[in-house]
Each structure stands twice: as structure tokens, then as C-alpha cells.
Amino acid sequence: YVREGAAGFKVWKDLGLRLRDEDGKRIPINSPRLKAVWDKAAELDKPVVIHVADPPAFFEPADRYNERLEEIVQYHFWHHYGKGLEFKSFMEQLDDLLEKNPGTDFLAAHLCSYPGNLDYVSDLLTRHENLYTDVAAVLSEIGRQPRRFRRFVQEHPGRILFGTDFFAGDPLPY
Q1: Is the pTM of this model over 0.85?
Q2: Dihedral of the CA atoms 57, 143, 125, 1 (nearest 10)?
């Protein structure tokens, strides 16, 4: 597809969250079996856009204390609580993926799936020169911390992109 003009490669959140191997085990984003894919992207000098996980609230109980309860009720398949998944493990997988593939540029969508913790995302960006991120679908989280977000952008110029998380032709909500 590169010859036809592909600018990069997208990995959906199904990897890590839903896709399973022949033994029925979830395939983590840092699976050694995927090393050839990341190496090929590096060889072609094409970035990999990777959607690491859903927001942390989707891994917590769906109760009155969950700030994303309305979304969880509407999109119940986004709720991962009680399924043996921990948000923290996805962040550890991302860190490991970046560490083991320094020649591959990764764009971890939605502020690395952790927009509520810009200090954590900033640390990832500082430690991994091959990491980029975007602000797609996280404007509400950014709005809660405008001064921290401003400082975050200033700390990492050129590494934070505007994204929409919409397909071509979809109406934009902005």
C-alpha cells in the first residue's frame, strides 16, 4: 500500500483488548509476534498509529461514581470491568513496545489513552523519542486542565497532533 500512497499504518484497539491467538489468549500490543510489523514500518519510514486502550473509567465499575457511566451504558461493549483487564497493563505494554522498537515511530492516539494524566503521558514522550500523540476525542479531558495542557504542549513541541477520530466524510462535531 505504500506504493499506492499509504502514509502510515493504523492499529485498532482490538489488539490488546479483544484479538486472541489460537490458544484463546489476548494478543498484547507488545507481543513479540508483531515485531516484524513494527520493523517493516521502520524500514519504510512510516508511522504506526496505535489505539492502545479505552479510557481508565471503562475499566472501573459502572456505578454512580464512574464519570463515564453514560457512555458505558450506551456502549456496553466498551466496558471492560470484570473481564480480567487492567488499564495499567496497557500502559506498561505501550512503554515496553516503545522501548523495544526505538526505530519505529508510533503515534499513540487519544493522548496515549490517558488524557487525564498528562504527567504520565509527558514522561512517556520524554523517555521515548519515537512516540507522538494526538488530541482526538479527548477535548473534554483537556478542558479540565487547560494550564497543564498548555505546559504539556510547550514541553513537547511537534509531538502532539490534532486528530479527529472520524472517518472521511463523517460530520465533525467541532
Answers
A1: yes
A2: 80
pLDDT tens string 52-109: 999 999 999 999 999 999 999 999 999 999 999 999 999 999 999 999 999 999 999 9
Angle at CA of residue 63, ends 61 and 66, nearest 5° = 75
Given strand 160-161, what is the order of strands in its sheet?
9-11, 48-50, 106-108, 131-134, 160-161
Tens digit of pLDDT for each residue in 119-163?
999 999 999 999 999 999 898 899 999 999 999 999 999 999 998
Specify whether the CB–CB gap between 80 and 54 falls below 8 A. Answer: yes
Collapsed DSSP state (helix, strand, coil) of residue 19: coil
5-34 burial: b if 16+ Cβ within 10 Å, else e: eeeebebebebbbeeeeeeeeebbbbbeeb
